[in-house]
């Protein structure tokens, strides 16, 4: 009987009937059979669920049978879609619920169980109340699941579940049992940053990770120190550094330097200072140095001739030290290394190197500025100062102030606040010029007490400029700024001094400075008070101190909107990065009657949850974006989304896309800036698509916002990787040249051109460090920058968010040796944008006056034509430059025009079809998109300590005996070339700059009226 | 022969002997043992494994369950009947093609239909009916049940009562008695709604009793709320207790209008 084999039951009725039999064995038989048929007959069984349930509850019934009944009911409920009931019965089924079974039922219920468990655990953790009991059966299931994952070597899965469920014990087990502990740890760090939303719990996870790391035979100090930094444990970092520094091995010292550079990149000033202060001074007593206990706090700390920072230590034991001076070579070595590391920790080393890099690689296109200058109407002061802003941003950190110098006459049209900004602009240009900052600004600074002849506006601006120069590294300048603040009662100067002080002492929470600023605030002057409010916030960044309530109280008291606004932003700054801790304050602000404080509340949300992509924060912001009555609040709420989401830039365009089509122009403006902030420097295609229509919006300020945002997104992206960049540049030019364009959007376009070519085309806007930590300075900078809606001078804060896109390799002496590496991509993808004025430059060489005499219009036409028919023009110039094919060719033509600058920095070996790789020479510009193509040569003399494609990288010298060739610092021959700049013909470069590796302070210039 | 099978067969023989003796207690006892033994056979539903003795085992099991059904009728246990019938059913439906037809099949199916009729589960009755083939419907046992149902639905209650005499199988009598009671209950329910009171004579005729005594007994047992007075049976007491509820029309209208308004606003 063939059919016999296929005999199937058509109904579960018989089995169900059997359940009602009185004999327990029959019931059991029925149950076990029903289990195997439940997938098919659950609709029939579902009507009998009550009977099965009663079997489960029947005390007389055997344990196994009851569990069987529970499993059956659970499955039926699962099919009925009642997951909660299903889960509770599955728990009743005990061991019969097999977590390793591969069925939808098990998968679904497991997911449900884990969710349930995770939410219970986190609820228990949040209420910090052990009373919230977790069903032990649930716990058992989850544990079984975890064990299974670990057994199956699915460590990532296990770690994910363990983190979700806050089971640190299991997490540790998963990590230690995995085969690749380093990989797992790295994964775990990543996960804990992107998916652990509660701050305290993240701390716990990281603490655990540090613990695990330290147990490893070969700890990964780079990662440990990153964790420790997050945990704010300078002690631990100091210990590690000291251990490495004291090591015999030179490589360990290199590693220590590398660790420090990585820490510095996160810009956590207070932390770094702490670490620095905790590094113990070298001991020179031989008896003690025998035992190399790294952190032995012996009182006999001796003179430290090479660490001049430690003045207080030196003082104490100077007398005792002299006799045991050169005791131990080890100590001498340690002392030497210590000096270096302190230099790095204070940020000076990296700032100096960055400065040199930006100066030597400056590729800013002065012709763009010239065009802007000429096309802007003389009387239009907004555009006039916008041009000054654009210049400052373009040259941020390069110390090149040629443009200002060449146009003193034009510059002098800046009066009052414009003068303030013009002076402050110098600070942006000389950003990081720590040593000479003060002497640079000296001509404009208030002359002590004499009440000098300078205008208060330029004096105030100069103080602000000092702050910008020393932003986040203000050790040396703080005192001076304080004195200036105290010695004046002119509100403009107070304004500048407050801003400067806030910048210089960013996040240090210095009580004395705070009191000084507070006294300015209490004078209740609108101009000074606004700056004071912001400054207090800058000072207290991320401290969540109770000062916030003091500020809030004053904000309620004062009548001046400006002061309230300043304070609102200041309060928001204090809760930077505090996540849940800030909730009460945020609640308080967002419920305030005063729209300005609600507006501050939006900033508080943005900053407290910066880069966390926290769902709660996003929900709240979206709610305010559509429901608040004040346009300002709505605009800010949307804008704030950009800050919350900057760690996941791909998300932002999607989330704000609807808002960008809002009928309310303020919301559209906010959406544009949100995209600009979170996608800054990414060149993300979706972001550009979203912004494109907004750049031709009907409302002028929306256009302004969209242009600025677009520039932020496109910074350092060149036409070869996204053709829309070229289009955008042309659009900017068109707007600037258009006589009938609104001032607002014109200003936006001018600023956008500045941002697009920021920092001599060598910086990008980056809010996350390479280790995915947030960069405090950068985020704060952008937050205050977004305030320029009310107060233009705040535009300069954008310079805080610039970070150089460079690979800077350093040797043991922290010098930049000559070192080659590969960029495995077509050079044209990442090269500098071509100078806008290739044809004009050529003519400029021949006829220097031609440019000046051309009217702006004719020039624009010429330029447009040039773009279209570049080849035609070129061919007439006895040099065929087909636009696309080769950089080599472009370069060689450039060479002829006198641009000798790139000669030793960029390859120009051949003019054949474009090569598929490029050899870069340390230090080199490496744009973020290029990072994945960077390869290190295998037979190179130097080997990087850490395989990082950009940033500061320590190099290990494999052939230490050979003489080193330094490529940046001590090579006057190579630095001499930038004298030409990019627009060689017009630039009367000061020869002094070329000779010294440090650019000299520029000659003071006077405003003539 | 398989020892298990032999054991079951022997036990079954003892069961049959007891059955014939009408020793129902020991029958129930033996039956329960038999059922437990049957669970050991893997060829039986729902597993239907193809063991060498499958056909024999299936046949034996079927016979046991058939007897179980009949037994349950004999001891007048409707729940047991239902249970056993459902366990028997797969032997007819799923294994029917492999086994020679059983002589008991139609009488038992008919019994089941009758049971559903008695329990007034008309929907299930028709479901079962739909599952039967045309030939099955011709079978007198089935036909009997079907006709009963028709009479019952038409309200030809006298025909229902008289059908007791034409029952095709002796086991049917039990259900026919029950059916008569169902019919009476139905009539009583209707009369309650239809009349305020009835003379005893009319009531007797209405409820199809031959003697007044039977009527009074029935009233006493089933409808103690009826009142027998002066040769009349008063039924309406029950009626008063359930006043007709007024429909809150005004409120409904208002609600509907407001919904309409809201809807308009949303669009």
From TrEMBL, chain A:
Biased composition (Basic and acidic residues): 863-872
Polar residues bias locations: 286-305
Alphabetical list of InterPro entries matching this protein: 26S_Psome_Rpn2, ARM-like, ARM-type_fold, Proteasome/cyclosome_rpt, PSMD1_RPN2_N, RPN2_C
Signal peptide: none
Pfam families named among the record's database cross-references: HEAT_2, PC_rep, RPN2_C, RPN2_N
Known partners and oligomeric status: Component of the 19S regulatory particle (RP/PA700) base subcomplex of the 26S proteasome. The 26S proteasome is composed of a core protease (CP), known as the 20S proteasome, capped at one or both ends by the 19S regulatory particle (RP/PA700). The RP/PA700 complex is composed of at least 17 different subunits in two subcomplexes, the base and the lid, which form the portions proximal and distal to the 20S proteolytic core, respectively.
Name the record gives this protein: 26S proteasome non-ATPase regulatory subunit 1 homolog
Organism whose genome encodes this protein: Theobroma cacao
Higher taxonomy: Eukaryota, Viridiplantae, Streptophyta, Embryophyta, Tracheophyta
Automatic annotation (TrEMBL), chain B:
Pfam families: CSN8_PSD8_EIF3K
UniProt xrefs under InterPro entries: 26S_Psome_Rpn12, CSN8_PSD8_EIF3K, PCI_dom
Record keywords: Proteasome
UniProt domain PCI: residue ranges: 79-251
UniProt source species: Theobroma cacao
Family membership: Belongs to the proteasome subunit S14 family.
Gene Ontology terms: biological process: proteasome-mediated ubiquitin-dependent protein catabolic process
Cellular component aspect of the GO annotation: nucleus; proteasome regulatory particle, lid subcomplex
Keyword Iron tagged: no
Protein name: Regulatory particle non-ATPase 12A isoform 1
Classification via PROSITE patterns: PCI (PS50250)
Signal peptide: none
Keyword check for NADP: no
Coiled-coil portions: none
PANTHER family: 26S PROTEASOME NON-ATPASE REGULATORY SUBUNIT 8
């Amino acid at each position: 009987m063939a059919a016999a084999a296929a005999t199937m039951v058509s109904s579960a009725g018989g089995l169900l009937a059997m359940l009602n039999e009185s004999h327990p064995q029959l019931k059991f038989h029925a149950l076990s059979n029903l289990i195997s048929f439940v997938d098919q007959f659950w609709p029939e069984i579902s009507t009998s669920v009550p009977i099965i349930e009663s079997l489960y509850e029947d005390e007389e019934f055997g344990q196994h049978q009851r569990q069987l009944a529970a499993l059956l009911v659970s499955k039926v409920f699962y099919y009925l879609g009642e997951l909660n009931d299903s889960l509770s019965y599955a728990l009743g089924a005990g061991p019969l619920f097999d977590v390793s079974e591969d069925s939808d039922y098990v998968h679904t219920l497991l997911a449900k169980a884990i969710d349930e468990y995770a939410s219970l655990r986190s609820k228990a953790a949040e209420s910090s109340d052990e009373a919230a009991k977790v069903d032990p059966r649930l716990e058992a299931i989850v544990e079984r699941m975890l064990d299974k994952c670990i057994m199956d070597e699915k460590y990532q899965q296990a770690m994910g579940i363990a983190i979700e469920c806050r089971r640190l014990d299991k997490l540790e087990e998963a990590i230690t049992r995995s085969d690749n502990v380093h990989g797992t740890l790295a994964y775990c760090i990543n996960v804990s940053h992107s998916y652990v939303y509660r701050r305290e719990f993240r701390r716990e996870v990281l603490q655990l990770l540090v613990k695990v790391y330290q147990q490893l035979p070969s700890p990964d100090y780079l990662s440990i120190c990153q964790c420790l930094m997050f945990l704010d444990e300078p002690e631990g970092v100091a210990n590690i550094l000291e251990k490495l520094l004291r090591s015999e091995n030179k490589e360990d010292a290199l590693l220590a330097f590398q660790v420090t550079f990585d820490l510095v990149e996160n810009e956590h000033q207070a932390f770094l200072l702490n670490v620095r202060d905790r590094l113990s001074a070298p001991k020179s007593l031989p008896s003690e140095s025998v035992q190399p206990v790294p952190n032995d706090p012996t009182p006999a700390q001796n003179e430290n001739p090479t660490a001049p920072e430690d003045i207080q230590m030196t003082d104490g034991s100077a007398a005792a030290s002299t006799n045991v001076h050169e005791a131990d070579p080890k100590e001498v070595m340690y002392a030497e290394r210590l000096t270096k590391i302190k230099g790095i920790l204070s940020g000076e080393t990296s700032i100096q190197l960055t400065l040199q890099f930006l100066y030597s690689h400056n590729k800013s296109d002065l012709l763009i500025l010239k065009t802007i200058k000429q096309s802007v109407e003389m009387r239009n002061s907004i555009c006039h100062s916008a041009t000054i802003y654009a210049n400052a941003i373009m040259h941020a950190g390069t110390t090149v102030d040629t443009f200002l110098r060449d146009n003193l006459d034009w510059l002098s049209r800046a009066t009052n606040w414009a003068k303030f900004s013009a002076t402050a602009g110098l600070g942006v240009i000389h950003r990081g010029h720590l040593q000479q900052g003060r002497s640079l600004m000296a001509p404009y600074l208030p002359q002590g007490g004499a009440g000098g002849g300078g205008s208060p506006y330029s004096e105030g601006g100069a103080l602000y400029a000092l702050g910008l120069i020393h932003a986040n590294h203000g050790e040396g300048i703080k005192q001076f700024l304080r004195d200036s603040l105290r010695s004046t009662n002119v509100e403009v100067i107070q304004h500048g001094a407050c801003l400067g002080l806030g910048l210089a002492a960013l996040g240090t929470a210095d009580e004395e400075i705070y009191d000084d600023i507070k006294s300015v605030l209490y004078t209740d002057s609108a101009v000074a008070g606004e700056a004071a409010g912001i400054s207090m916030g800058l000072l207290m960044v991320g401290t969540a101190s109770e000062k916030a309530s003091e500020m809030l109280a004053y904000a309620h008291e004062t009548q001046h909107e400006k002061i309230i606004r300043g304070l609102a932003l200041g309060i928001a700054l204090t809760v930077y990065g505090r996540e849940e801790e800030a909730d009460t304050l945020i609640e308080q602000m967002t419920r305030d009657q005063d729209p300005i404080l609600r507006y501050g509340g939006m900033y508080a949300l943005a900053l407290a949850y910066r880069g966390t992509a926290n769902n709660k924060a996003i929900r709240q912001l979206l709610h305010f974006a559509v429901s608040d009555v004040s346009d300002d609040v709505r605009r800010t709420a949307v804008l704030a989304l950009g800050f919350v989401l900057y760690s996941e830039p791909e998300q932002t365009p999607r989330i704000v896309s609807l808002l960008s089509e809002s009928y309310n122009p303020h919301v559209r403006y906010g959406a544009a800036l949100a995209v600009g902030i979170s996608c800054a420097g990414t060149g993300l295609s979706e972001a550009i698509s979203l912004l494109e229509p907004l750049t031709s919006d009907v409302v002028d300020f929306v256009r302004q916002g969209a242009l600025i945002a677009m520039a932020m997104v496109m910074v350092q992206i060149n036409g070869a990787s996204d053709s829309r960049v070229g289009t955008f540049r042309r659009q900017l030019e068109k707007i600037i040249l258009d006589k009938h364009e609104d001032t607002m959007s014109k200003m936006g376009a001018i600023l956008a051109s500045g941002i697009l070519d920021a920092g001599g085309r060598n910086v990008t806007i980056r809010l996350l460090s390479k280790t995915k930590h947030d960069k405090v300075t950068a985020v704060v900078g952008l937050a205050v920058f977004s305030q320029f809606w009310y107060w233009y001078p705040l535009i300069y804060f954008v310079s805080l968010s610039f970070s150089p896109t460079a690979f800077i390799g350093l040797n043991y002496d922290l010098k930049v040796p000559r070192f080659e590496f590969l960029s495995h991509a077509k050079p044209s993808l990442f090269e500098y944008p071509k100078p806008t004025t290739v044809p004009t430059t050529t003519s400029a060489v021949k006829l220097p006056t031609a440019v000046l005499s051309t009217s702006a219009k004719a020039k624009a036409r010429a330029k447009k034509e040039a773009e279209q028919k570049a080849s035609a023009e070129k061919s007439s110039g006895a040099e065929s430059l087909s636009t696309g094919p080769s950089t080599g060719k472009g370069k060689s033509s450039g060479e002829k025009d006198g641009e000798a600058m790139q000669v030793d920095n960029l390859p120009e070996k051949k003019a054949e079809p474009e090569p598929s790789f490029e050899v870069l020479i340390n230090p080199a510009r490496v744009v973020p998109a290029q990072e994945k193509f960077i390869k290190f040569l295998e037979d190179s003399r130097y080997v990087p300590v850490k395989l990082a494609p950009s940033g500061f990288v320590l190099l290990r010298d494999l052939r230490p005996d050979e003489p080193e060739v330094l490529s940046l610092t001590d090579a006057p021959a190579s630095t001499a070339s930038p004298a030409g700049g990019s627009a060689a013909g017009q630039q009367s470069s000061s020869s002094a700059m070329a000779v010294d590796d440090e650019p000299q302070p520029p000659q003071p210039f006077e405003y003539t009226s | 022969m398989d020892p298990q099978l032999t054991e079951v067969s022997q036990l079954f023989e003892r069961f049959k002997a007891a059955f014939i003796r009408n020793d129902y207690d020991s029958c129930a006892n033996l039956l329960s043992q038999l059922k437990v033994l049957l669970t050991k056979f893997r060829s039986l539903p729902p597993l239907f494994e193809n063991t060498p003795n499958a056909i024999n085992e299936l046949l034996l099991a079927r016979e046991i369950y058939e007897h179980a059904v009949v037994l349950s009728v004999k001891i007048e246990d409707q729940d047991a009947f239902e249970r056993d019938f459902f366990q028997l059913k797969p032997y007819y439906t799923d294994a029917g093609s492999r086994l020679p037809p059983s002589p008991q099949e139609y009488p038992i199916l008919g019994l089941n239909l009758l049971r559903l009729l008695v329990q007034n589960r008309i929907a299930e009755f028709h479901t079962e009916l739909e599952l039967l083939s045309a030939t099955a419907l011709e079978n007198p046992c089935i036909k009997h049940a079907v006709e009963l149902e028709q009479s019952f639905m038409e309200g030809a209650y006298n025909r229902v009562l008289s059908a007791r005499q034409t029952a095709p199988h002796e086991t049917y009598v039990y259900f026919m008695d029950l059916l008569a009671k169902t019919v009476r209950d139905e009539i009583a329910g209707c009369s309650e709604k239809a009349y305020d009171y009835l003379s005893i004579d009319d009531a007797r005729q209405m409820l199809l009793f031959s003697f007044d005594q039977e009527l009074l007994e029935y009233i006493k047992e089933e409808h103690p709320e009826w009142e027998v007075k002066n040769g009349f049976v008063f039924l309406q007491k029950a009626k008063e207790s359930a006043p007709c509820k007024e429909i809150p029309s005004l409120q409904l209208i208002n609600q509907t209008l407001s919904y309409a308004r809201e809807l308009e606003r949303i669009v």
